[in-house]
């Protein structure tokens, strides 16, 4: 059975339930650097799909030659973005009438894994681009470094409807008939990955829990289950590698028209 997009009501509830998306993402810096480089050759238009409160739009607003706008299906965050003077609309790729536009760059940061038909969304984005346009999107890399021990409920439906690996992303580029480039940050160091996984296994996953509370929980957990520490180190050492380094938990994908 096909996945069902939870729609605007779900994300409005998520916002009202005090779920907070990160205020900054590694991939925003990567994308902004590319836009700054592209704008040296002339003005470029950027559309940020699923822009949320517009934090990436704010980041690139001062790049000379970049004209940016965004849209989101959550009306509350659209209003918040507009209140800060950003050019943001309520809707999605099927409703904002982009078929008449010819855009240089479309960005979708942590959007693709949320939609029921990612191929359709990316095809719509591709069709809005000019002849030399670019799509940039980021997704979690599955499996993430801790998921062997703790199944993250926010990486499952209805929040995340699809999962993406290096192999599936390569296939995606072929399916869309576009050239594909991948950028990944440096993975967290081995001790940090081990500790994060143990914190989750120990049951102290709440973001608001103090560092001391988490540390005490991990110490109790390892004291009662000492083999878990050895198993976790072994698991992290076996993690898939990319360009000689352990895979991080996120990837920035760049799709270019041939």
UniProtKB/TrEMBL annotation:
<dbReference type="GO" id="GO:0008168">
    <property type="term" value="F:methyltransferase activity"/>
</dbReference>
<keyword id="KW-0808">Transferase</keyword>
<keyword id="KW-0489">Methyltransferase</keyword>
<protein>
    <submittedName>
        <fullName>Class I SAM-dependent methyltransferase</fullName>
        <ecNumber>2.1.1.-</ecNumber>
    </submittedName>
</protein>
<dbReference type="Pfam" id="PF13489">
    <property type="entry name" value="Methyltransf_23"/>
</dbReference>
<dbReference type="InterPro" id="IPR029063">
    <property type="entry name" value="SAM-dependent_MTases_sf"/>
</dbReference>
<dbReference type="GO" id="GO:0032259">
    <property type="term" value="P:methylation"/>
</dbReference>
